[in-house]
Specification:
The protein is mostly beta strands and 275 residues long. Helices cover 7% and strands 58% of the residues. The chain is built from one helix and 20 strands. A hairpin with a 4-residue loop joins strand 14 (173-181) and strand 15. The termini are far apart.
Length: 275
């Protein structure tokens, strides 16, 4: 695949990933792309392997180091890097290269292999493999009120989430409650995953009061970590969102996940308190 066709397929996803993993919130130049962003695989006879592609979207070459970090998804804050985790894949992971140069408008492939000891308990093991540019990027920002210009050096990094499953494990999702988040001004559905495998879930929902449907919409792809829970944002199909008066409501719909699109219906109550 040439770099032009890669850009057409991957740039929107790359933009999303960069917004999650850049070390600074500044609008750094997005000159690194990675594909795929998520790798899920099943270990066979204790081994699994895979590849991902790092692309240089700039005309200038860059050098980068490649390293891992355990992670999870907090139910409130979303992605969180960890210092350690019992589900860390890194001790069983080998990958190459660990440092690479990517010439302008070209791509490099990184390969990995995992080897699990027979005594390792069945479960999901995961890590984020980051590619971090060795050359800091200078971002120039102007404070119009103070009339000053500030140069800030940041180190862009972008990562691929790798999940390797050992044994016959699967997600098990269920909606447990709902709330109106006044700070974010949106409806949120709390989904628990009681399975030993993470899942990227989506779905559809509707909000009713009595027999009247007030709102409906879709649930965007969201990772619910194994044996964890996560608040999913419910975005109405029509904008702006209808203002909800205090009282009792019902939210129902379906959660879907997996290649075969496993589906489970849900129905939970929602209480909008008086402000």
């Amino acid at each position: 695949m040439n770099i032009t066709s890669f850009l057409k397929l991957s740039l929107p996803l790359t933009t999303l990933l960069l917004s999650s993993f850049l070390q600074s919130g500044s609008a750094a130049k997005a000159d690194i792309a990675i594909s795929p962003m998520i790798l899920e695989t099943q270990a066979k006879r204790g081994q699994a392997k895979g590849t991902f592609t790092v692309s240089n979207l700039d005309e200038k070459a860059f050098r980068a180091r490649v390293y891992t970090s355990p992670f999870t998804y907090d139910k409130e804050k979303g992605f969180q890097a960890l210092t350690s985790s019992p589900n860390d894949l890194a001790p069983y992971l080998q990958f190459s290269p660990r440092e690479l140069q990517v010439d302008g408008s070209t791509q490099r492939t990184i390969r990995f292999i995992t080897r699990f000891p027979p005594s390792l308990p069945d479960g999901e093991y995961r890590t984020m493999i980051f590619t971090e540019n060795l050359q800091p990027t200078t971002v120039t920002e102007t404070d119009n009120k103070k009339g000053v210009t500030v140069n800030t050096s940041i180190v862009p990094r972008i990562g691929v989430a790798v999940y390797v499953r050992k044994g016959n494990i699967a997600p098990k999702l269920a909606a447990s409650s709902a709330r109106f988040n006044a700070k974010a001004s949106n409806l949120q559905l709390l989904v628990a995953n009681k399975g030993k495998a993470s899942a990227i879930t989506s779905g559809e929902w509707k909000l009713k009061r009595g027999n009247q449907t007030l709102q409906s919409g879709k649930i965007g792809d969201t990772t619910v970590i194994a044996e964890g829970e996560r608040y999913l944002s419910l975005t109405p199909a029509k904008s702006p969102q209808t203002k909800l008066s205090p009282g009792n409501y019902e939210i129902s719909g379906d959660l879907a996940w997996g290649e075969k699109k496993n589906k489970v219906p849900f129905k939970v109550n929602l209480l909008v308190p008086k402000s």
